[in-house]
Protein backbone atom coordinates (compact mmCIF):
# COMPACT_ATOMS: atom_id res chain seq x y z
CA UNK A 1 0.00 0.00 0.00
CA UNK A 2 1.17 3.51 -0.78
CA UNK A 3 2.03 5.73 2.16
CA UNK A 4 -0.73 7.97 3.42
CA UNK A 5 1.38 10.96 2.45
CA UNK A 6 1.83 14.28 4.19
CA UNK A 7 -0.51 16.55 2.29
CA UNK A 8 1.59 19.71 2.35
CA UNK A 9 4.31 18.36 0.03
CA UNK A 10 2.10 16.29 -2.31
CA UNK A 11 -0.53 18.77 -3.47
CA UNK A 12 1.21 20.36 -6.46
CA UNK A 13 -0.52 18.03 -8.93
CA UNK A 14 -3.32 16.32 -6.96
CA UNK A 15 -5.91 14.00 -8.46
CA UNK A 16 -9.31 13.94 -6.70
CA UNK A 17 -11.50 10.84 -6.87
CA UNK A 18 -15.07 12.09 -6.59
CA UNK A 19 -14.06 15.69 -7.29
CA UNK A 20 -17.65 16.87 -7.79
CA UNK A 21 -18.71 16.09 -4.22
CA UNK A 22 -19.56 18.94 -1.87
CA UNK A 23 -16.51 18.50 0.35
CA UNK A 24 -13.99 17.40 -2.27
CA UNK A 25 -14.82 20.16 -4.75
CA UNK A 26 -14.16 22.89 -2.18
CA UNK A 27 -10.65 21.67 -1.42
CA UNK A 28 -9.95 21.21 -5.12
CA UNK A 29 -11.15 24.72 -5.87
CA UNK A 30 -8.89 26.39 -3.29
CA UNK A 31 -5.89 24.38 -4.50
CA UNK A 32 -6.60 25.40 -8.10
CA UNK A 33 -6.89 29.05 -7.04
CA UNK A 34 -3.50 28.72 -5.32
CA UNK A 35 -1.87 27.49 -8.51
CA UNK A 36 -1.96 23.70 -8.15
CA UNK A 37 -2.51 21.66 -11.31
CA UNK A 38 -5.72 19.88 -10.25
CA UNK A 39 -7.27 16.86 -11.91
CA UNK A 40 -10.05 14.54 -10.86
CA UNK A 41 -12.91 12.28 -11.78
CA UNK A 42 -16.57 11.86 -10.95
CA UNK A 43 -19.44 9.63 -11.96
CA UNK A 44 -21.35 12.39 -13.73
CA UNK A 45 -20.97 15.89 -15.08
CA UNK A 46 -22.45 18.73 -13.04
CA UNK A 47 -22.39 22.52 -12.66
CA UNK A 48 -19.80 22.06 -9.90
CA UNK A 49 -17.58 20.11 -12.29
CA UNK A 50 -18.04 22.88 -14.84
CA UNK A 51 -16.95 25.50 -12.29
CA UNK A 52 -13.80 23.48 -11.55
CA UNK A 53 -12.98 23.23 -15.25
CA UNK A 54 -13.28 27.01 -15.53
CA UNK A 55 -10.52 27.22 -12.90
CA UNK A 56 -8.30 25.03 -15.06
CA UNK A 57 -8.96 21.63 -13.47
CA UNK A 58 -9.00 18.55 -15.70
CA UNK A 59 -12.08 16.49 -14.82
CA UNK A 60 -12.89 13.06 -16.25
CA UNK A 61 -16.40 11.61 -16.16
CA UNK A 62 -16.31 8.01 -15.04
CA UNK A 63 -13.59 6.21 -13.10
CA UNK A 64 -10.69 4.63 -14.97
CA UNK A 65 -7.02 3.88 -14.31
CA UNK A 66 -6.26 5.97 -17.41
CA UNK A 67 -7.58 9.09 -15.63
CA UNK A 68 -4.57 9.16 -13.32
CA UNK A 69 -1.85 11.31 -14.91
CA UNK A 70 1.69 9.98 -14.97
CA UNK A 71 2.98 12.98 -13.01
CA UNK A 72 0.27 13.06 -10.30
CA UNK A 73 1.87 13.87 -6.94
CA UNK A 74 -1.04 12.56 -4.85
CA UNK A 75 -4.51 11.07 -5.01
CA UNK A 76 -7.06 12.74 -2.74
CA UNK A 77 -9.94 10.63 -1.42
CA UNK A 78 -12.83 10.94 1.00
CA UNK A 79 -14.21 8.24 3.26
CA UNK A 80 -16.89 7.58 0.62
CA UNK A 81 -14.34 6.16 -1.85
CA UNK A 82 -14.23 2.38 -1.75
CA UNK A 83 -10.94 0.48 -1.68
CA UNK A 84 -11.65 -1.21 -5.02
CA UNK A 85 -11.97 2.09 -6.94
CA UNK A 86 -9.85 1.65 -10.09
CA UNK A 87 -8.02 4.95 -9.68
CA UNK A 88 -7.24 4.29 -6.03
CA UNK A 89 -5.98 0.80 -6.81
CA UNK A 90 -3.77 2.21 -9.57
CA UNK A 91 -2.38 4.90 -7.25
CA UNK A 92 -1.36 2.29 -4.72
CA UNK A 93 0.22 0.09 -7.36
CA UNK A 94 2.27 3.06 -8.61
CA UNK A 95 3.26 4.21 -5.13
CA UNK A 96 1.47 7.57 -5.43
CA UNK A 97 0.69 9.01 -1.98
CA UNK A 98 -2.98 8.71 -1.02
CA UNK A 99 -4.18 11.76 0.93
CA UNK A 100 -7.47 11.97 2.77
CA UNK A 101 -9.54 15.08 2.05
CA UNK A 102 -9.22 16.16 5.68
CA UNK A 103 -5.41 16.09 5.48
CA UNK A 104 -5.55 18.21 2.33
CA UNK A 105 -7.86 20.71 4.02
CA UNK A 106 -5.63 20.82 7.10
CA UNK A 107 -2.68 21.64 4.84
CA UNK A 108 -4.66 24.48 3.23
CA UNK A 109 -5.27 25.99 6.67
CA UNK A 110 -1.58 26.07 7.61
CA UNK A 111 -0.37 29.63 8.20
CA UNK A 112 -3.87 31.04 8.71
CA UNK A 113 -6.18 31.73 11.65
CA UNK A 114 -8.63 28.85 11.23
CA UNK A 115 -12.20 28.71 12.47
CA UNK A 116 -13.47 25.11 12.37
CA UNK A 117 -17.24 24.66 12.63
CA UNK A 118 -18.44 21.37 14.13
CA UNK A 119 -21.70 19.90 15.38
CA UNK A 120 -24.33 17.36 14.41
CA UNK A 121 -26.47 20.01 12.72
CA UNK A 122 -25.92 23.48 11.29
CA UNK A 123 -22.27 23.32 10.20
CA UNK A 124 -22.83 24.41 6.60
CA UNK A 125 -25.12 27.29 7.54
CA UNK A 126 -22.82 28.62 10.27
CA UNK A 127 -19.70 28.32 8.10
CA UNK A 128 -21.54 30.14 5.31
CA UNK A 129 -22.72 32.91 7.64
CA UNK A 130 -19.16 33.50 8.79
CA UNK A 131 -17.72 33.45 5.29
CA UNK A 132 -20.30 35.89 3.91
CA UNK A 133 -20.23 38.31 6.83
CA UNK A 134 -16.42 38.40 7.07
CA UNK A 135 -16.26 39.10 3.33
CA UNK A 136 -18.85 41.86 3.77
CA UNK A 137 -16.51 43.46 6.31
CA UNK A 138 -13.65 43.34 3.79
CA UNK A 139 -11.61 40.74 5.71
CA UNK A 140 -11.32 38.50 2.61
CA UNK A 141 -11.31 35.10 4.35
CA UNK A 142 -10.59 31.77 2.72
CA UNK A 143 -13.32 29.21 3.23
CA UNK A 144 -14.44 25.69 2.42
CA UNK A 145 -18.17 25.00 2.89
CA UNK A 146 -20.23 21.85 2.40
CA UNK A 147 -22.68 23.59 0.07
CA UNK A 148 -22.86 26.32 -2.54
CA UNK A 149 -23.77 29.85 -1.45
CA UNK A 150 -25.24 30.91 -4.79
CA UNK A 151 -23.53 29.88 -8.04
CA UNK A 152 -22.14 26.35 -8.58
CA UNK A 153 -18.62 26.14 -7.20
CA UNK A 154 -19.17 28.94 -4.67
CA UNK A 155 -18.56 26.52 -1.81
CA UNK A 156 -14.95 27.59 -1.49
CA UNK A 157 -12.64 30.53 -2.02
CA UNK A 158 -8.99 31.40 -1.56
CA UNK A 159 -8.87 34.82 0.09
CA UNK A 160 -5.97 37.07 0.90
CA UNK A 161 -7.03 37.60 4.52
CA UNK A 162 -5.64 35.73 7.52
CA UNK A 163 -8.89 33.95 8.53
CA UNK A 164 -9.81 30.53 7.12
CA UNK A 165 -13.33 29.20 7.83
CA UNK A 166 -14.09 25.51 7.31
CA UNK A 167 -16.57 22.85 8.26
CA UNK A 168 -15.20 20.20 10.59
CA UNK A 169 -16.83 16.87 9.81
CA UNK A 170 -17.27 14.51 12.73
CA UNK A 171 -18.85 11.69 10.70
CA UNK A 172 -15.58 9.79 10.14
CA UNK A 173 -13.50 11.55 12.84
CA UNK A 174 -11.66 13.50 10.15
CA UNK A 175 -12.06 16.70 12.19
CA UNK A 176 -9.29 15.38 14.42
CA UNK A 177 -6.85 16.52 11.70
CA UNK A 178 -7.48 20.24 12.19
CA UNK A 179 -5.78 22.64 14.62
CA UNK A 180 -8.14 25.64 14.75
CA UNK A 181 -7.64 28.88 16.59
CA UNK A 182 -11.40 28.91 17.17
CA UNK A 183 -13.55 25.77 17.30
CA UNK A 184 -17.33 26.10 17.12
CA UNK A 185 -19.50 23.26 18.42
CA UNK A 186 -23.18 23.87 17.72
CA UNK A 187 -24.69 20.71 19.19
CA UNK A 188 -23.74 17.12 19.99
CA UNK A 189 -26.05 14.21 19.17
CA UNK A 190 -25.70 10.58 18.14
CA UNK A 191 -25.53 10.20 14.36
CA UNK A 192 -23.38 8.38 11.80
CA UNK A 193 -24.19 5.05 13.35
CA UNK A 194 -21.81 3.14 11.11
CA UNK A 195 -18.91 4.91 12.87
CA UNK A 196 -20.20 5.64 16.38
CA UNK A 197 -21.85 3.08 18.65
CA UNK A 198 -22.72 5.33 21.59
CA UNK A 199 -22.84 8.88 22.91
CA UNK A 200 -19.69 8.15 24.90
CA UNK A 201 -17.85 7.55 21.63
CA UNK A 202 -19.29 10.81 20.26
CA UNK A 203 -18.12 12.75 23.33
CA UNK A 204 -14.67 11.19 23.16
CA UNK A 205 -14.38 12.18 19.51
CA UNK A 206 -15.41 15.77 20.19
CA UNK A 207 -13.01 15.93 23.14
CA UNK A 208 -10.20 14.96 20.79
CA UNK A 209 -11.29 17.73 18.42
CA UNK A 210 -11.32 20.30 21.22
CA UNK A 211 -7.90 19.07 22.30
CA UNK A 212 -6.62 20.16 18.88
CA UNK A 213 -7.49 23.85 19.48
CA UNK A 214 -4.32 25.91 19.43
CA UNK A 215 -2.90 27.10 22.77
CA UNK A 216 -4.61 30.35 23.67
CA UNK A 217 -7.45 29.59 21.27
CA UNK A 218 -11.19 29.50 21.94
CA UNK A 219 -14.05 27.02 22.03
CA UNK A 220 -17.41 28.55 21.06
CA UNK A 221 -20.18 26.22 22.20
CA UNK A 222 -23.93 26.21 22.79
CA UNK A 223 -25.09 26.92 26.34
CA UNK A 224 -28.55 25.46 25.57
CA UNK A 225 -28.03 22.13 23.85
CA UNK A 226 -27.81 19.23 26.36
CA UNK A 227 -25.05 17.41 24.50
CA UNK A 228 -23.03 20.61 24.16
CA UNK A 229 -23.40 21.35 27.89
CA UNK A 230 -22.15 17.86 28.73
CA UNK A 231 -19.17 18.32 26.44
CA UNK A 232 -18.41 21.69 28.02
CA UNK A 233 -18.33 20.02 31.43
CA UNK A 234 -15.86 17.45 30.09
CA UNK A 235 -13.43 19.88 28.45
CA UNK A 236 -13.95 23.18 30.28
CA UNK A 237 -10.98 22.82 32.60
CA UNK A 238 -8.31 22.55 29.92
CA UNK A 239 -5.44 24.98 30.45
CA UNK A 240 -5.03 27.59 27.75
CA UNK A 241 -8.55 27.12 26.35
CA UNK A 242 -10.95 30.04 26.36
CA UNK A 243 -14.57 28.80 26.45
CA UNK A 244 -17.27 31.14 25.12
CA UNK A 245 -20.89 30.03 25.35
CA UNK A 246 -23.92 31.35 23.48
CA UNK A 247 -27.66 30.81 23.77
CA UNK A 248 -30.70 31.69 25.83
CA UNK A 249 -29.15 30.43 29.06
CA UNK A 250 -28.76 33.28 31.55
CA UNK A 251 -25.07 32.54 32.03
CA UNK A 252 -24.16 32.51 28.33
CA UNK A 253 -21.33 34.80 27.24
CA UNK A 254 -23.48 35.85 24.28
CA UNK A 255 -27.01 35.62 25.60
CA UNK A 256 -29.95 35.46 23.22
CA UNK A 257 -32.63 37.78 24.59
CA UNK A 258 -35.16 37.46 21.76
CA UNK A 259 -35.74 35.90 18.36
CA UNK A 260 -38.64 37.61 16.60
CA UNK A 261 -39.88 35.96 13.37
CA UNK A 262 -40.80 38.22 10.47
CA UNK A 263 -42.03 35.99 7.66
CA UNK A 264 -38.99 34.23 6.25
CA UNK A 265 -36.51 36.33 8.31
CA UNK A 266 -35.85 36.83 12.01
CA UNK A 267 -34.74 39.70 14.23
CA UNK A 268 -32.31 38.63 16.93
CA UNK A 269 -31.34 40.52 20.07
CA UNK A 270 -28.30 39.46 22.10
CA UNK A 271 -26.36 40.77 25.09
CA UNK A 272 -22.60 40.25 25.24
CA UNK A 273 -20.78 39.51 28.49
CA UNK A 274 -18.59 42.26 29.91
CA UNK A 275 -15.51 40.35 28.78
CA UNK A 276 -16.78 40.81 25.20
CA UNK A 277 -17.74 44.46 25.62
CA UNK A 278 -21.13 44.16 27.33
CA UNK A 279 -23.16 45.56 24.42
CA UNK A 280 -26.75 44.72 23.51
CA UNK A 281 -27.18 44.21 19.77
CA UNK A 282 -30.16 43.61 17.48
CA UNK A 283 -29.63 42.29 13.97
CA UNK A 284 -31.46 40.55 11.13
CA UNK A 285 -31.06 36.92 10.06
CA UNK A 286 -32.29 36.53 6.50
CA UNK A 287 -33.50 32.93 6.87
CA UNK A 288 -36.39 31.71 9.04
CA UNK A 289 -36.30 29.67 12.22
CA UNK A 290 -34.82 29.87 15.70
CA UNK A 291 -32.13 27.29 14.91
CA UNK A 292 -30.80 29.46 12.09
CA UNK A 293 -30.84 32.47 14.41
CA UNK A 294 -28.72 30.51 16.89
CA UNK A 295 -26.30 29.58 14.10
CA UNK A 296 -25.89 33.31 13.45
CA UNK A 297 -25.20 33.94 17.15
CA UNK A 298 -22.55 31.20 17.09
CA UNK A 299 -20.93 32.97 14.13
CA UNK A 300 -21.07 36.28 15.98
CA UNK A 301 -19.41 34.72 19.04
CA UNK A 302 -16.64 33.16 16.93
CA UNK A 303 -15.95 36.51 15.32
CA UNK A 304 -15.69 38.09 18.74
CA UNK A 305 -13.20 35.38 19.73
CA UNK A 306 -10.99 36.57 16.85
CA UNK A 307 -11.45 40.21 17.91
CA UNK A 308 -13.78 41.08 15.01
CA UNK A 309 -15.96 43.87 16.50
CA UNK A 310 -19.39 42.40 17.29
CA UNK A 311 -21.10 45.72 16.52
CA UNK A 312 -19.74 45.46 12.96
CA UNK A 313 -20.19 41.72 12.48
CA UNK A 314 -23.82 41.65 13.66
CA UNK A 315 -25.25 43.79 10.83
CA UNK A 316 -22.93 42.08 8.33
CA UNK A 317 -24.62 38.75 9.16
CA UNK A 318 -27.74 40.05 7.40
CA UNK A 319 -25.84 39.78 4.10
CA UNK A 320 -26.11 36.00 4.37
CA UNK A 321 -29.22 35.06 2.41
CA UNK A 322 -28.95 31.31 2.46
CA UNK A 323 -27.04 28.37 1.05
CA UNK A 324 -28.27 25.85 -1.45
CA UNK A 325 -30.36 23.06 0.06
CA UNK A 326 -30.84 24.87 3.40
CA UNK A 327 -34.46 26.04 3.08
CA UNK A 328 -33.67 27.26 -0.43
CA UNK A 329 -36.61 28.64 -2.39
CA UNK A 330 -36.60 26.83 -5.74
CA UNK A 331 -39.52 28.78 -7.17
CA UNK A 332 -43.27 29.47 -7.11
CA UNK A 333 -45.89 28.11 -9.50
CA UNK A 334 -49.69 28.17 -9.39
CA UNK A 335 -49.49 29.94 -6.03
CA UNK A 336 -47.37 27.12 -4.52
CA UNK A 337 -43.85 27.71 -3.14
CA UNK A 338 -41.32 24.88 -3.56
CA UNK A 339 -38.45 24.92 -1.04
CA UNK A 340 -35.51 22.52 -0.74
CA UNK A 341 -34.16 21.26 2.60
CA UNK A 342 -31.07 19.16 3.33
CA UNK A 343 -32.57 17.95 6.63
CA UNK A 344 -32.12 14.21 7.13
CA UNK A 345 -31.79 13.78 10.92
CA UNK A 346 -34.94 13.97 13.09
CA UNK A 347 -33.74 17.11 14.89
CA UNK A 348 -33.12 18.84 11.55
CA UNK A 349 -36.43 17.69 10.08
CA UNK A 350 -38.39 19.04 13.05
CA UNK A 351 -36.45 22.32 13.12
CA UNK A 352 -36.97 23.02 9.41
CA UNK A 353 -40.66 22.13 9.58
CA UNK A 354 -41.16 24.42 12.58
CA UNK A 355 -39.30 27.22 10.79
CA UNK A 356 -41.38 26.80 7.63
CA UNK A 357 -44.58 26.55 9.62
CA UNK A 358 -43.81 29.94 11.13
CA UNK A 359 -43.55 31.59 7.71
CA UNK A 360 -46.10 29.61 5.72
CA UNK A 361 -49.20 31.69 6.44
CA UNK A 362 -52.50 29.84 6.11
CA UNK A 363 -51.36 27.28 3.52
CA UNK A 364 -50.46 23.66 4.12
CA UNK A 365 -46.92 22.29 4.38
CA UNK A 366 -46.42 19.28 2.10
CA UNK A 367 -43.18 17.27 2.36
CA UNK A 368 -41.42 14.97 -0.06
CA UNK A 369 -38.94 13.14 2.18
CA UNK A 370 -36.12 10.86 1.08
CA UNK A 371 -34.41 8.99 3.95
CA UNK A 372 -30.60 9.00 3.77
CA UNK A 373 -28.56 5.89 4.69
CA UNK A 374 -29.80 2.51 5.86
CA UNK A 375 -27.87 2.77 9.13
CA UNK A 376 -29.44 6.12 10.02
CA UNK A 377 -32.94 4.88 9.14
CA UNK A 378 -32.42 1.74 11.20
CA UNK A 379 -31.50 3.74 14.29
CA UNK A 380 -33.66 6.85 13.87
CA UNK A 381 -36.54 5.84 11.59
CA UNK A 382 -39.11 6.13 14.36
CA UNK A 383 -37.94 9.63 15.27
CA UNK A 384 -37.98 10.65 11.60
CA UNK A 385 -41.61 9.57 11.36
CA UNK A 386 -42.50 11.50 14.49
CA UNK A 387 -40.87 14.62 13.05
CA UNK A 388 -42.75 14.29 9.76
CA UNK A 389 -46.01 14.43 11.72
CA UNK A 390 -45.38 18.20 11.91
CA UNK A 391 -46.24 18.44 8.19
CA UNK A 392 -49.80 18.51 6.89
CA UNK A 393 -48.99 15.66 4.50
CA UNK A 394 -45.85 13.77 3.51
CA UNK A 395 -44.68 11.58 0.66
CA UNK A 396 -41.84 9.25 1.69
CA UNK A 397 -39.47 7.82 -0.93
CA UNK A 398 -37.21 4.80 -0.73
CA UNK A 399 -33.93 5.12 1.19
CA UNK A 400 -31.08 6.86 -0.60
CA UNK A 401 -28.16 4.46 0.06
CA UNK A 402 -25.22 6.81 -0.66
CA UNK A 403 -22.12 4.85 0.38
CA UNK A 404 -23.97 1.99 2.13
CA UNK A 405 -25.21 -1.43 1.10
CA UNK A 406 -28.82 -2.39 1.95
CA UNK A 407 -29.58 -3.71 5.43
CA UNK A 408 -32.17 -6.55 5.50
CA UNK A 409 -35.49 -5.37 6.88
CA UNK A 410 -34.56 -1.67 6.86
CA UNK A 411 -36.85 0.26 4.53
CA UNK A 412 -38.83 3.51 4.49
CA UNK A 413 -41.69 1.59 6.07
CA UNK A 414 -40.01 2.18 9.46
CA UNK A 415 -40.58 5.92 8.99
CA UNK A 416 -44.01 5.64 7.39
CA UNK A 417 -45.37 3.39 10.15
CA UNK A 418 -44.05 5.71 12.87
CA UNK A 419 -45.58 8.76 11.17
CA UNK A 420 -48.91 7.00 10.82
CA UNK A 421 -48.89 6.07 14.51
CA UNK A 422 -48.67 9.79 15.25
CA UNK A 423 -51.69 10.53 13.11
CA UNK A 424 -49.73 11.86 10.13
CA UNK A 425 -51.05 11.92 6.58
CA UNK A 426 -48.23 9.97 4.95
CA UNK A 427 -47.93 8.22 1.57
CA UNK A 428 -45.27 5.76 0.43
CA UNK A 429 -43.95 6.31 -3.10
CA UNK A 430 -41.41 3.87 -4.53
CA UNK A 431 -41.32 5.48 -7.98
CA UNK A 432 -39.39 8.73 -7.72
CA UNK A 433 -40.55 9.78 -11.20
CA UNK A 434 -44.17 9.68 -10.07
CA UNK A 435 -43.68 12.35 -7.40
CA UNK A 436 -44.26 15.50 -9.51
CA UNK A 437 -47.63 14.21 -10.69
CA UNK A 438 -48.56 13.14 -7.17
CA UNK A 439 -47.65 16.51 -5.63
CA UNK A 440 -49.24 18.37 -8.55
CA UNK A 441 -52.53 16.73 -7.67
CA UNK A 442 -52.20 17.49 -3.95
CA UNK A 443 -50.94 21.09 -3.86
CA UNK A 444 -53.32 24.04 -3.80
CA UNK A 445 -52.62 27.80 -4.04
CA UNK A 446 -51.06 29.01 -0.78
CA UNK A 447 -49.45 25.64 0.01
CA UNK A 448 -45.73 25.14 0.50
CA UNK A 449 -43.92 22.05 -0.81
CA UNK A 450 -40.69 20.98 0.89
CA UNK A 451 -38.32 18.52 -0.80
CA UNK A 452 -36.31 17.14 2.08
CA UNK A 453 -33.29 14.88 2.46
CA UNK A 454 -29.56 14.61 1.75
CA UNK A 455 -29.88 12.58 -1.47
CA UNK A 456 -31.12 13.34 -4.98
CA UNK A 457 -34.57 14.39 -3.78
CA UNK A 458 -33.28 17.91 -4.42
CA UNK A 459 -33.63 17.28 -8.16
CA UNK A 460 -37.40 16.95 -7.81
CA UNK A 461 -37.97 20.64 -7.06
CA UNK A 462 -37.77 21.85 -10.68
CA UNK A 463 -39.85 18.88 -11.84
CA UNK A 464 -42.58 19.68 -9.32
CA UNK A 465 -42.55 23.33 -10.40
CA UNK A 466 -42.90 22.28 -14.05
CA UNK A 467 -45.86 20.06 -13.19
CA UNK A 468 -47.51 22.86 -11.21
CA UNK A 469 -47.10 25.20 -14.21
CA UNK A 470 -48.70 22.72 -16.61
CA UNK A 471 -52.26 23.34 -17.94
CA UNK A 472 -53.48 20.35 -15.94
CA UNK A 473 -53.03 22.34 -12.77
UniProtKB/TrEMBL annotation:
GO biological process terms on file: cell division; cell wall organization; peptidoglycan biosynthetic process; regulation of cell shape
Domain of life where this protein originates: Bacteria
A GO CC annotation given for this chain: cytoplasm
Domain Mur ligase N-terminal catalytic: 15-111
Annotated SUPFAM superfamilies: MurCD N-terminal domain, MurD-like peptide ligases, catalytic domain, MurD-like peptide ligases, peptide-binding domain
Subcellular location: Cytoplasm
Keyword set, alphabetical order: ATP-binding, Cell cycle, Cell division, Cell shape, Cell wall biogenesis/degradation, Cytoplasm, Ligase, Nucleotide-binding, Peptidoglycan synthesis
Pathway annotation from the record: Cell wall biogenesis; peptidoglycan biosynthesis
Main location: cytoplasm
Catalytic reaction equation(s): UDP-N-acetyl-alpha-D-muramate + L-alanine + ATP = UDP-N-acetyl-alpha-D-muramoyl-L-alanine + ADP + phosphate + H(+)
EC numbers for this chain: 6.3.2.8
Start and end residues of each Mur ligase C-terminal domain: 325-455
Single GO MF annotation: UDP-N-acetylmuramate-L-alanine ligase activity
Domain Mur ligase central positions: 117-302
Residues bound to ATP: 119-125
InterPro entries noted in UniProt: Mur-like_cat_sf (IPR036565), Mur_ligase_C (IPR004101), Mur_ligase_C_dom_sf (IPR036615), Mur_ligase_cen (IPR013221), Mur_ligase_N (IPR000713), MurCDEF_pg_biosynth (IPR050061), UDP-N-AcMur_Ala_ligase_MurC (IPR005758)
Function, as annotated: Cell wall formation.
PANTHER family (UniProt xref): UDP-N-ACETYLMURAMATE--L-ALANINE LIGASE, UDP-N-ACETYLMURAMATE--L-ALANINE LIGASE-RELATED
Family: Belongs to the MurCDEF family.
Official protein name in the record: UDP-N-acetylmuramate--L-alanine ligase
Amino acid sequence: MAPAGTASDTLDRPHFIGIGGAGMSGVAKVLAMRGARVSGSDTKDSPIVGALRELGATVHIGHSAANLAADATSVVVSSAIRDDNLELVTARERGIPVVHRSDALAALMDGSRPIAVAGTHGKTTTTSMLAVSLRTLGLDPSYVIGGDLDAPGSSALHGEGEIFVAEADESDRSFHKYAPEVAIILNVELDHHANYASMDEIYESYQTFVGRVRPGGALVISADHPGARELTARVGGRDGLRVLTYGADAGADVRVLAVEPHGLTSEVTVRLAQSLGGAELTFTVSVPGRHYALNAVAALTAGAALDVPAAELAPALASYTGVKRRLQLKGTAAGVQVIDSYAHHPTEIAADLEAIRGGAGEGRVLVVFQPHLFSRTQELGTEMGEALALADASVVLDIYPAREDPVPGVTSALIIDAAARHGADVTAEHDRDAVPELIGGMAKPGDLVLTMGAGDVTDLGPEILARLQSPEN
